[in-house]
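Go through this:
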Amino acid sequence: MGSVRWAFRCGSWVPSRSELLLAARCIQREEKHRIGQFVFAKDAKSALVGRLLLRRFVCEKMGIPWSEIRLERSARGKPYLAAPLKVSSDSGPVWSFNLSHQGDFAVLAAQQGVQVGVDVMKTTMPGSSSVPEFFRIMTRQFTGYEWSIIQSAGSEQQQLAAFYRHWALKESFIKAIGTGLGFNLQRVEFHLSSEPLTQGRALRQTKMYLDEEQEEDWIFETLSSSLQPPTTFTLLLFSELIASASPLTEEDPAYWDTFRMKAEAPQRQRDTHTST
């Protein structure tokens, strides 16, 4: 069965004017409009890369011409390929695909014949809360057993890493089954491998319990990365990301002007704070 694992370093991608305008032309018009509404340039980049990853996958692995791809979202936010489908009958089992982006990376995982979910997390403190306060807010998202593992991990940074490891597992499962955040996360409990999580190496010994019953049919891969993606993912360049692309809309110079203003805004704010 086919398997795809792609990553793109969208966080450190500084698009030129021609790159951004070309990328914007190669996604659906409504997607371009939605991405244009993001307040921060980093979020716009991540969303734009995500749509290009999905379209590249559908074009190259499912054999659908770029111009005929129609991507939609389910009521719970899971992306899917809308009808009409033009996948040949000899293309093998049905593909399942999923996307995630945070921090420096956008990632896509796809597999034939099985459900797939993927989640990437940046293991830093969100907002200005303390770690205990952050954990208090998130109490209902984990079982008592999971909290015991998280809070016994060591330093606050190690506890955060354990928290995000559990959270990414739960997110990937929910995304695979397509239920969205309405799913009661305490129904699912993860028992992690005793092996340490090391750079670039996938751990596959995680066990999942659903409603206190161990689920044998699910396989979870947990990976750690910093500046480079895990070795199980292929890192794409921008030229590779759009290698199969064809423009769907006309060029919109104003799109670049808006993006550049958003990208420059954080620097202007820093300059202002420095001078006051």
Notes: Residues 253-275 form the longest helix (23 residues).
